[in-house]
UniProtKB/TrEMBL annotation:
It holds the Pfam family Transferase. This is Shikimate O-hydroxycinnamoyltransferase. Belongs to the plant acyltransferase family. It comes from Rhynchospora pubera. Keywords: Acyltransferase, Transferase. It comes from the Eukaryota. One of its GO terms (molecular function) is acyltransferase activity, transferring groups other than amino-acyl groups.
């Protein structure tokens, strides 16, 4: 079993919507599947299963999750789990107006994460500019990097041509 951990923005999914502000309004989600199913599926099918998890993020689910987290906090119970060798975490600040900030000397020239040292984590952020893309910083230890290179170049790229 492999699990992908990621966050999803809840600002427009909760009612009433959270007003615009600079800060997080996210909830942690995960999608899981058998490794054999992931490796034998097209990348679009795998992405579709992740999207289905995000699409299931309703107002009721968010409020229930907040209640759960409050109870766990009161009980001083950690809800953070260790990731296994086949898991991956995504940390994202996509869509946050980080390049619109001005502390008096203009927009930032570079925005980055304070640390990128965790194993099996992908950090996502917008590049500056209207037509800019997405920056992905992948943090893997050397043994995981060798496995990633094999899967990416030898297996995933085969599906891209189909």
């Amino acid at each position: 079993m492999s699990r992908l951990y990621f966050t999803a923005d809840i600002r427009n999914r909760i009612h009433p919507p959270i007003p615009a502000y600079f800060g997080n309004g996210v909830i942690r989600l995960s999608a899981s599947s058998e490794v054999s199913k992931i490796t034998s599926s097209r990348i679009g099918e795998v992405a579709g299963s992740v999207k289905a998890v995000i699409d299931g993020l309703t107002d009721d689910y968010i409020r229930s999750f907040i209640d759960y987290m409050e109870v766990m906090h009161e009980r001083k119970v950690s809800v953070i789990t260790d990731i296994t060798e086949s898991d991956l975490r995504i940390r994202t600040i996509l869509g946050m107006p980080i390049y619109d900030l001005d502390f008096g000397w203009g927009s930032p020239q570079l925005v980055s994460w304070e640390r990128c040292t965790e194993n099996r984590v992908v950090y996502l952020m917008n590049e500056p500019g209207e037509d800019a893309g997405i920056k992905a910083v992948v943090s893997l230890d050397s043994s995981t990097m060798k496995q990633f290179q094999k899967v990416f170049y030898e297996e995933l790229m085969l599906f891209a041509d189909e």
